[in-house]
Amino acid sequence: QQQVKQSPQSLIVQKGGISIINCAYENTAFDYFPWYQQFPGKGPALLIAIRPDVSEKKEGRFTISFNKSAKQFSLHIMDSQPGDSATYFCAASNFNKFYFGSGTKLNVKP
Amino acid sequence: GAGVSQSPSNKVTEKGKDVELRCDPISGHTALYWYRQSLGQGLEFLIYFQGNSAPDKSGLPSDRFSAERTGGSVSTLTIQRTQQEDSAVYLCASSLGVSVITFGSGTRLTVV
């Protein structure tokens, strides 16, 4: 059973646009929700993370929106740039065990 | 070291051979994870080590896969009698606390 469901699988956005990636989870015991960014040939790197006691977290152009009642969270990339083109993974964890979504390949067109 | 180090970065092996993949975590990190990433796929959990506790092996796909962590630091993932479906990128990660995990660049395994 997939613990974290991520959509879309791929996304094409024009430079300057907003990229939105969505994730949903089932286990209400999850207490940490990070997003990872992965460039080709590299391991995933932590981008931004949120805990369930807040509904939104913003770091620069990246924002996580969290809806505890709906068990959903999303990543918004404002003013998307070609350098943001990468694969993005959402994750959820509790007790140090991490469950990852299937990934979204983002392509930002110049 | 400054980051999680994995070796080799690439490994080509013949079907049926055994392979060993090495992970050197960030110094002082007590938790160590192995994940597998198949082409264009997500991250599949394999095994998790936390301090001196018994490892969580619930993600190992078959008994051909095993891992050990010596001295609470370096870890080796061993795949015996490799099959073509084992071809993937094997990622190691480590963490100190209960939040941020840091990944290495992975070992790309190709079984021919």
Please supply descriptive tags for the structure shown above.
heterodimer, A: about 110 residues, mainly beta, six-stranded mixed sheet, globular, B: about 110 residues, 10 strands
Q: How is this structure best described in words?
A:
- The complex is a heterodimer of chains A (110) and B (112).
- Chain A contains no helices and 11 strands.
- Chain A has strands at residues 4-7, 10-14, 19-25, 33-38, 45-50, 56-59, 62-67, 72-77, 86-94, 97-100, 104-109.
- In chain A, the strands form 2 sheets. In chain A, strands 2, 4, 5, 9, 10 and 11 form a 6-stranded mixed β-sheet that branches. In chain A, strands 1-3-8-7-6 form a 5-stranded antiparallel β-sheet, with no helix packed on it.
- In chain A, strand 7 (62-67) and strand 8 (72-77) form a beta hairpin.
- The mean pLDDT of chain A is 94.
- Chain B is mostly beta strands and 112 residues long.
- In chain B, the strands form 2 sheets. In chain B, strands 2, 4, 5, 8, 9 and 10 form a 6-stranded mixed β-sheet that branches. A 4-stranded antiparallel β-sheet of chain B has the order 1-3-7-6, with no helix packed on it.
- Chain B contains no helices and 10 strands.
- Chain B is globular, with a radius of gyration of 13 Å.
- The A-B interface holds A 6, 32, 34, 36, 41-46, 49, 89, 93, 95-103, 105 and B 4, 31, 33, 35, 40-43, 45, 48, 50, 56, 91, 93, 95, 98-106.
Structure described in brief:
The complex is a heterodimer of chains A (110) and B (112). Chain A is mainly β and 110 residues long.
Output the structural class of chain B: mainly beta
Task: Let me know the average pLDDT of chain B.
Answer: 92
Helix content of chain A: under 10%
Distance between the termini of chain A: 38 Å
Radius of gyration of chain B: 13 Å
Runs of chain B in which pLDDT lies below 50 for 5 or more consecutive residues are none
Query: How much β-strand is present in the residues of chain A?
Result: over 45%
Strand tally of chain B, please? 10
Order of helices and strands of chain A: EEEEEEEEEEE
Largest sheet of chain A: 6 strands, mixed
- Ranges of chain A where pLDDT stays below 50 over 5 or more residues in a row are none
- Oligomer state equals heterodimer
How big a fraction of the residues of chain B is strand?
Answer: over 45%
Overall pLDDT confidence of chain A: 94
By DSSP (H or I, 4+ residues per run), the number of helices of chain A equals 0
* Total helical elements of chain B: 0
Overall geometry of chain B comes to globular
| Bulk shape of chain A | globular
